[in-house]
Amino acid sequence: MFNLNKTIPTPKLWSKKKSQQRRSPFFFLSLFLLSLIFLFFLTFTSIPKSLFSSSSSKTTALSLQFPHCEIRISGEKFLWYAPHSGFSNQLSEFKNALLMAGILNRTLIIPPILSHHAIALGSCPKFRVHSPKEIRVSVWDHVIELITSGRRRAVLCVVEKGEGEEKLERGVRKECRARNRGTFPSLRYVSMADIIDISSVLSSSHVRAIDFRVFVSSWCGLDLDLACSKEPNTQPTYLVDSLKQCGSLLSGVDGNIDRCLFAVDDDCRTTVWTYGNDEADGALDSFQPNEQLKKKKKISYVRRRRDVYKTLGPGSKADSATVLAFGTLFTAPYKGSELYIDIQKAPRDSKIQSLIKKIKFLPFVPEIISAGKQFAVQTVKAPFLCAQLRLLDGQFKNHWEATFSGLKQKLDSLSQTGSRPIHVFVMTDLPRGNWTGNYLGDLAKDSTNFKLYFMNEEDSLVMETAKKLALAGHGLRFGSNLGGIESTDTVAKLQKHCAPHILPDILLFIEETICSCGSLGFFGTAGSTIADNIEIMRKFSSCSNQREDHKMM
C-alpha cells in the first residue's frame, strides 16, 4: 500500500563553493543518462497513480491487477449485457442482445434467467434509472449467487419434500415453504438457452454464442468443484475474492482496460442506438426531457441518436476490447421514438435484415412446446379460451375491476355463439384460495356454463418436462465449439459438477404455450408483458399443429 501523504525529503543544496567549480562535459552527459534510467525505472514500477497521468502506465497497472485480461479465447470478441425485471423483459433484452452481437460481430454471452424483479432498472421516460455500471454489478452478484449458493438451497428444498422437514433447520424450512408458495425468489440457475430455442439463429451463422458459465469458468478461472459445492460455506476466500475481482472487471468498476474491456455507459437517458440509416450520427432524438422535468429533477440530459456500428464497431476504441459490456438492452416504443434501441430494419445489410426477422419470434425449446400441446389435447380435449390474469404484481393489483370486466365481456360474447360449457384455461398469479368473493370464484362455481383448467408446479406433466430439460442441458451446449480454451473439457466439467439437483421452474413457459393453443381466443391483462409474449406466439402460430388437432376431434 502506498502512502501518498508521505513527505519526500528535500535533497541538501550544494555549497556555493562547489557550484562555482568548472565541471567536465562528461559529468552532464552522465547526469542526463542517469535521469533517463531513473524515469524508465519509475514507468515500469508500481507507483501511486496520482504521480503520473499517462494512460499507458494506467493500462499496464490494470493489466497486472487483472490477469483475466491476458486470457484470449480463440481470438473471439464477446458481448455481455445486464438483463433485468421479469422473464418477458429479459426475453426482449435477449433478442436485442442477439441483434447487437450480430451487428458488432461478437460472440454473445448467454445469461441465465434472473429471479423475478431481482434486478430493477427504473424509469427511462422519467430519466430515473440505475446507471449501466450499477446494473452490471447487481446482475453479476445475482448470477454468481445462482451458481454458488442456489444449488445448495435447492438441494435442501428437494430433501425437505422427499425426506421430511424434521431434518432441516427452522430457517431453511421457512425458506423452502415460501419458495413453494411462489413468494420467495427462485435461486435456480437456468440459462436463457435452456428455455428459448435459438438453434435457427445460430445455425444460420448470424450470431455466435457462449453460455455464461462456460465463459466465466475460463475467464475467471472458476474452480468448478468448489463453486458448485452442495455444502454451505465451502467456497474458500480466494475463490470468492477472485469472483469479486472478475465481476469488478467485467462490470467496468475500474473503467475501461485497453484491448480487454470496454464498458458502455451510455443509457436511455442520453442515447438511442440506430444502425445503417440515412440520418446524421448524433442527431437529436424526438423525445427529450421537458422543461418541467428538467427543473423539478435538476437534470440536463440530451438524447442523441447514435449508430452503434460507427460508435462501437471496427475502427473504434471499443472494437479492440475482448469484452464489450452493455448495461440493460431493454427498449420500448415511447412518444414516437424508442427508449434505447431503434433498429427496426437494415435495408443495406441483408444479413442483419434476416437476423431482425428471425428474432421477432424465438420459440420455446421443443420440450416445452410439446408439453403445452399435450395438455391441450389430453387434458382440455376441446376448443378453449385462455385467460391470462395478472392481479398481484405492481400496478395490476389496483385494476382487478377492469380486468374482470374485460374477461366477463369476452365470455358473454362466447356464450351467445358457442355451446356450453365454455372451456377456459386460467393462467393467473392469484392463488386459488383467494378466488372466493371475486369473479374467478363465480366462474369456478358455475360449472354448468364454464369449465376451468389450470396448472400447478407439482403437476406430473410439469415435473416430467422439467426433468427432460434438466437432462437436455441446452444452454451448456453453446461455447463448446470455441477452441483455444479447452472449452469441451470445460463444458464436461460443468455438466459433472454443476448438474442441477432441483428441477427448473418452467410453469410459466408451459402456461404461455397452452395459451397460444387456445382456439376460442385469448384474453390478456392490459399492460402485461406476459400477455404481449402470448400474442406474439399466437401471431406466429406456434401451436398451429395443435389447432389442426382440435379440428380433427
How are the strands of the largest sheet arranged? 5-2-1-10-6
Number of helices: 23
Radius of gyration: 29 Å
User: Helix coverage percent of residues?
Assistant: 40-55%
Report the structural category. alpha/beta
The biggest beta sheet is recorded as: 5 strands, parallel
Mean pLDDT: 80
Keywords: Membrane, Transmembrane, Transmembrane helix
Protein name: O-fucosyltransferase family protein
Provide an overview of this structure:
This protein has helices at 16-19, 25-43, 55-65, 87-104, 132-148, 150-163, 170-180, 192-195, 199-203, 212-219, 224-227, 237-250, 291-297, 308-312, 350-359, 366-380, 400-417, 439-445, 460-472, 487-497, 507-516, 529-539, 544-552; strands at 78-80, 107-110, 122-123, 128-129, 208-211, 261-263, 271-274, 283-284, 304-307, 323-325, 333-334, 337-338, 385-389, 422-428, 450-453, 521-524. Helix 4 (87-104) runs antiparallel to helix 15 (350-359). The strands form 5 sheets. It has a 5-stranded parallel beta sheet with strand order 5-2-1-10-6. A 4-stranded parallel beta sheet has the order 15-14-13-16, sandwiched between helices. With 553 residues, it is of the alpha/beta class. It contains 23 helices and 16 strands.
